[in-house]
Amino acid sequence: MPMMNQKLNKPHGYICCARVEKLKVGLVTYTPEKVEGFDPHIFYSKWVDGSVFPPAIGMQNDVTCFCDAKAIREDPSLVAVSKNGPALRKNKKVNLSFDFICPTNEEYQKSVLNYVENLGKEKIQGVTLNLYHFPDEEFCVCQRCVELWRKSGLNWTDWRAQTVTGFLKEVKKRIGNKPLYVNLLPDPVLGKERFGYDFDALAEYADTFVIPMFSKAYPSPWYWEMLARAFKSKLKKPVFTNLYVRGPNDDPNQVPTADQLLTVAVRIARTGIDGIIFLAENAERIRDFQKAAVQSKDVLAELDGYGGDEVLDLVNKWKSLF
Q1: In a 3-state reduction of DSSP, which class is residue 145?
Q2: What predicted TM-score, i.e. pTM, was given to this entire model?
Q3: Omega before residue 40 within 30° of 0, cis
Q4: What's the domain count of the chain?
Q5: Which of 5-19, 122-136, 208-222, 301-315 is the least confident region?
Q6: Distance between alpha carbon 56 and the CA centroid of its chain, in Å?
Q7: Residues with Cβ within 8 Å of residue 44, at least 6 apart in sequence
């Protein structure tokens, strides 16, 4: 099968999905800093490595729920398990990006809920949840999970989905009327079977869904556009996508270029999604991207007319910052 032409083809009579409000462009960082030109601002307050930070006042606070490498090192019994072994990055058979704690572990679940509840008492913009689900389809088959499943009377897939939805329901209860953003890993077809996502049930509690589309390069914009369109068609709440600019300890030569990010953002924006969130290590990294985006004159000219004008309009506003 021949490779698809990577050059963008301008659409003829292209009709995007309906969007009620103007596209929002936000920022998520590992430091509690706001940067002009973005809204909402999201701060990673609880990380996959187990680091936990005080809440960032006036910002969304992003909470990693059931990935905690530090907690697992201290108590290996916390880890989720499968017939292929534990949910650890070093276990090549399961091919996971993070070390996962079993989501039915009551003690650890309680610690996450208490942390979220305390966040909800602060003057924050809202809470974002990530990695609050099962690691993948074959997890978790610990004795506790198997017993809970058998007592439920449900099939395996529905029990896992009920478990994930129940946790989300409790989070929403703990934070009251503060907005709840909920991450969904980018599988619009097998999300329920793999992670326990019941899209309609989750929409009862999520105010906004965020789809992380992280890559160290975006050479195939049609792929990300396809995913964005699929999620927008399936989800009953506003849909944001999350694009990768530069994370901690990244080699600057091995991260997406401004041209790639602009291209994929425009292609995604024209699907009718409600927002795009850029991930960067800190304010300095995202300002570097803003500056490079403003200077990408040839790509900006090429992208004019593709249907993602809101992204181009924002970049035009960034010019006044430099």
Answers
A1: helix
A2: 0.93
A3: yes
A4: 2
A5: 5-19
A6: 19
A7: 28, 29, 30, 53, 62, 64
Q: 86 pLDDT exceeds 50?
A: yes
Do 111 and 31 belong together in one domain?
Answer: no
Q: Please check whether residue 49 lies inside any domain of the structure.
A: no
Residue 175 lies in a domain: yes
User: Which of residues 150, 174, 206 is at a domain's end?
Assistant: 206
Same domain, yes or no: 60 and 202: yes
Q: Give the per-residue pLDDT at 14.
A: 45
Pairing label, strands 60-64, 126-130: parallel
Which band of pLDDT confidence, cut at 50, 70 and 90, is reported for residue 9? low
Among residues 206, 231, 258, which one ends one of the domains?
Answer: 206
Q: Which of 38, 39, 46, 56 is nearest to 286 (CA)?
A: 38
SS3 content of the chain, % helix, strand, coil (to 5): 40, 15, 45
Domain boundaries, position 259: 1-38+210-322
Give the rounded percent of residues in the chain with a pLDDT score beyond 70: 93
Per-residue confidence band for 16, with pLDDT thresholds at 50, 70 and 90: low
Are 207 and 172 within 8 A, CB to CB? no
The reply to whether 101 and 153 lie within a common domain is: yes
Assigned token pair, 93: 């058979």
| CATH code of the domain containing 120 | 3.20.20.80
Average pLDDT over residues 40-48: 97
Supply the pLDDT for residue 202: 98
Buried b (16+ CB within 10 A) or exposed e, 157-180: eebbbbbbbebbebbbebbeebeb
Distances (CA, A) of 290 to 212, 213, 300: 20, 19, 13
Answer yes or no: do 196 and 214 share one domain: no
The answer to the question of residue 43 being in a domain is no
Hey, how many other C-beta atoms are within 10 angstroms of the C-beta on 74?
10
Question: Does residue 19 lie within any of the structural domains?
Answer: yes
What value, to the nearest 5°, has the Cα angle with vertex 282 and ends 185 and 24?
55
Query: Are 197 and 259 members of one domain?
Result: no
